[in-house]
Amino acid sequence: MRMPWPVFFMAMAGIYLVEVLIFALAFQLDHRHLEGDGAMGIPVSVVFALQNLFSASFQSVEVTSPYSLGLAGGQRIVGLLTNAMVTGLFFLRFTQVDAPLRFSRHLCLSSWPDGHLSCRFVTRDPSYWLKVSYAMVLFLDEEVEPGVWQRRVHPLALLNTSTPQLHVTAVLSHRLTPASPLVQLGLAAITAAGGALMVLVEGTDEVTGSPLLQVHHYRIADILEGQRFTDLVSIDGSGRRSVDLDALDRTQPLRESAQSNPELHR
Question: Whole-angstrom distance between the N-terminal and C-terminal Cα of the chain?
Answer without folding.
Answer: 49
